[in-house]
Amino acid sequence: MSITDLTLYQQAILLLAGLILLTSFLMLGQTRLLRLIVIFAIQGCLLAAATALAAGVLAYPHLYISAILTLILKGIVIPMLLYRLTHRMGLHRHMDTIDHPTLGMMGGIGLVVFSYYVSLPVVATSTLVTLNAIAVSLSVVLISMLLMINRRQAVAHVVGFMSIENGLFFAAVVSTYGMPMVVELGVAFDVLVAAVVFGVFFFQIRASIDSLNVDRLNTLHETEK
Amino acid sequence: MTAVYLILTTPLIGMILLAFRGDRPSAGAVNAWLNLLAFAEALWLAGDVFRHGPRLSPDRLLLIDPFNVYLVVLTTFVGLTTSLFSRAYMEHEREIGRVTSRRLRLYYAMYQGFMLTMYLVLTTNNMGVLWVAMEGATLATVLLVSLYRTPESVEAAWKYFILCGVGIAQALFGTVLLYFAAEQKLGIGGDGLLWTVLHENAAVLDPAILALAFVFLLVGYGTKIGLVPLHNWLPDAHSEGPTPMSAILSGLLLNDALYAVVRCKMLVDGSLGTHMAGTLMMGFGLLSFLVAALLLHRQTDIKRLFSYSSIEHMGLMTFAFGVGSPWATFAALFHMTTHSLTKSAIFVTVGHASQLAGTQRMERIRGLILTQPTIGWGLLIGTVAIAGFPPFGVFASEFLVLVATMRDYPWLTPLLLLGIGLAFAGLFRHLQSMVYGDVPEGQKPIPVKLWPVMLHLVIVLWLGLSIPGFLGDWFNQATQLISGALPQ
User: With 50 as the cut, is the pLDDT of residue A225 above it?
Assistant: First the structure.
């Protein structure tokens, strides 16, 4: 099936999927914390746009609620929270070091290929759009995990953590037209609480190791030395 | 069904109440009373299910069947006895100035919050809500792990938060895939995540998608069970947090995460008609079992020691559920009960022992039987029970697992025996000198209430000697539900 055979809605969703994947790669390569947070906010907005589009075209009004929730939480509140915390902790000029940036990028590409490979069983059962959505969301999840592995700063870890949820929401919206409302609300609540807990942790971590470089959290070992 | 609603609202009210009043001297008692209430409600519920069979709430969001009803009773019971212990424990911690009144409020509120999420995990019929509650359990406990605000505890909590958060995100992906598979066959709507609907229609769901979903669900919830190689957070969180937390984490959280995996397995088995899910669980379980048994030997911290023992037992249960025959399932259910009771009892004694010695390092915990015989004997008997000595219940359940394995996978029994032997040796090489040996200077007896421990151990002993009729009946019904047949 070629892309011109798809409906406009499906093409738009594919475009958004591509953009979301792009933001994931941008995050993977971004060393400045503030820019990282901004890209994360953009990803949240793209996700909200995808949800709103699905709600409008497919006529699932409950998705509008989900879109608004996503926009407020992922696009505005959580990035704002992180932005402020970063400023307050004096990390806004901070450059995070990334070991082997090229390898990281290639790893990201490898993960995308892997995601498409894993999603192959879905092809047999569904359309091109669903396949792309599932593969892209899995890629976003895995790339965010790679980001978390690759970074030292607690803030970057939180962005990665939240970006994982973005990927999952994208899969939920595009392949299944959103989860049941009770689940969506529950997940949104969890994400919000997690964001607050993360904020608390920043202060605890800084109080205990005098920085947010979590590499220094290394006193506990599998076995005693 | 009223009992279920009561069980869910009791901790909710308790959480709100204790969030404001949790620093009062009476807070520990309030916490215990709330748990007693929940326990009474659970007994009521159990009686109800015993008489009338499985129940589904009118909006189909809550489900009680033989599989989860006994876990609800177990959860409320362990929650109750641990809250009794935590009252004395937290008072002592407050006296020595390790916790402030604000943190005490946090502690009691989150204790109830944790119980709430556990009840929700067990009683919900919606796979999505199950995920939400499981993530909620992480959020409720993560601040408790860092309660003492030492660098180690903050590190442990961070590790716990990140690893479990990322891990369980995989489970959400699995849930989305599950919903995707359901929607294709059942049409769009809110029913696609209801466990009852999914289970009824398992045969028509797309096997390829379900197999993919199960991998993600197993990895996700497996992180919470503490399966190797995703177990890293568990010993840290258990050793650095307050001890009552370790007791309920080991005794309840791990069980409930395993419960989630088994529910998923039931779906996937119905769709695939192969043993793929079981094989995966067997592999992960056996690996966890053996690795944890080996790592037991290298621990120096008493709470880390017993958290590795938890990983080992959870591995064994995962393995047994993976084998999947009626006998193995029965054994796994039984082992869930005995392990939960024994392990929470052990953590209570361990908590007292480390308060007595003023440290968690085993090389400095010595001569417990001479200083305070109740703690010494409690630890000794508890460890004897958990290591699988007859006549305790753990022996009976481990024996059943072995018998079931011998029937289906005889070549795996030597590995199991090896693991049990290793774990036994690992526990006893440390226990001997802690319980006997010379008393170090400056140990003063502390006020303890060990009757909850004794109660647990007596029940475990009782279960080892004979399974009461109603419990056997539950186990039988649950086994039939999970594996489709009764143990012959």
Answer: no
